[in-house]
# Entry
Amino acid sequence: MSILIVGSLAFDDIETPFGHSDNTLGGSSTYIALSASYFTETILVVGVVGYDFEDEHFSLLHSRNIDTKGIQKIEYGKTFRWAGRYHYDMNTRDTLDTQLNVFADFDPVVPHQYQNAEFVCLGNIDPVLQLKVLDQIKTPKLVICDTMNFWIEGKLEALKKTLERVDIFIINDGEARLLSGDPNLVKSARIIRQMGPKTLIIKKGEHGALLFTDNGIFAAPAFPLENIFDPTGAGDTFAGGFIGHLSRCETINDIELRRAVLYGSTMASFCVEKFGTEKIASLELLEIEDRFQSFRELSRIDE
Amino acid sequence: MSILIVGSLAFDDIETPFGHSDNTLGGSSTYIALSASYFTETILVVGVVGYDFEDEHFSLLHSRNIDTKGIQKIEYGKTFRWAGRYHYDMNTRDTLDTQLNVFADFDPVVPHQYQNAEFVCLGNIDPVLQLKVLDQIKTPKLVICDTMNFWIEGKLEALKKTLERVDIFIINDGEARLLSGDPNLVKSARIIRQMGPKTLIIKKGEHGALLFTDNGIFAAPAFPLENIFDPTGAGDTFAGGFIGHLSRCETINDIELRRAVLYGSTMASFCVEKFGTEKIASLELLEIEDRFQSFRELSRIDE
# Structure
């Protein structure tokens, strides 16, 4: 199955209590694509980069078999840049700098050969652009969408139009409360699912994730890690593992959705162990399965 | 099996965004005892109350088969009082008033017929008093202990002496970080377990609880409730369900400890649905089992 991913490609300057990493390859679609690449063969990325996105960066994506023909390279501009600093507890961060650069004028064009993609993952970008991408896909089997506070506050109407066409929506707890206007997550979920997406995932960072479907609620823990090195991209990495697992399922039912949440959590748990994409660019399938099994153990009740 | 519980008996004035309840029966040992009463027949309470603790309050405890011979009634003083107000999100609260009253001079005396108790639950009181209680118990099979920031900051040495004699320690995430000096809960758990308790439970409120044993980590979700009415006593109610389940197990192993965490979570989820002890004073065994099964469903992966 093919997965089309649209989102940002970026260079990040990251500071954590344990060190810093400058000019690190990042961006939502980078994390999603790398993470999903362990689950399926055909990953198609639509995005935009500047002249500073060099062969080595394309090579890294190609090394994971990611198709980059949908990435426009603008020779007269720079790639999107973000700088942030994490606090002592790693749960909060300050954005120190955001330079949209070529991303400011991003007008996503889905190449002809991508338009039959079966799975579509709309990374956290302007919902107007998310809609433009959906308009170019013929008959997607499943549409997954992420967003953030910025768009909920600034582009609510466009976001609501996007959500009408989304099957699975992935947001964090703060975003769910903001979008629904209700502090209770169970009520929030009901309100948001009425906007369109039948399936909703609310990520709670170090507290795991909740999956809401017509059949009930699934609560996944986060992996209790001793060393969280850099949380950047963990949410996107979750989305990549989640859609990656679903893309290889013959039938998508609640059991596979629950497994997909654990695979997403598994990938996210690797992501935070090194700076940027370092860890998720070079995993072995066996270690992914090992940690997936550890996740199952973590909440297993019976012998 | 008999469970001896020592802790506070109190009257609370509680304000939440949904209403208020004055002069509500509360206190750590009240919640622990009521919660544990659904799991075992012999519940022994050691505590102190004033002249305002009336027959109706004793009757409520007796209606759940709780033995109150260890509760000293001081005729010239008033029962411990606490007043608090919960914020909009129900996760934070302000203490508006604390009146220790007869609790200020509490010197726990374990009645002779209680001294063979097999299970001991040390509620959140001065660790010096917790030690005094332990000194009066002959050969407890299992000692469970709770504490709070106030004692970690003010009576650390006494608390450490208590912990050397504790089998299972139950605290919340903030208390774990304070006691260990480490923001990471996995590292905190290792540091705290080295202080004595082989088994540690870190409660995370609406995010569930983590169980740490020699054999690994268990992550229990909290029950996703639509209506949280009053969180007062939820932690003590958790402890009551937890020790209650263990007291009826022939062997205490990791499986039973995990089940006990879910029973504790089950009882806590009922507690918050009404003001004070109202809900946990009048449960049916069937609804406890129903919710326990719902908890299992909540994190079940396989068919």
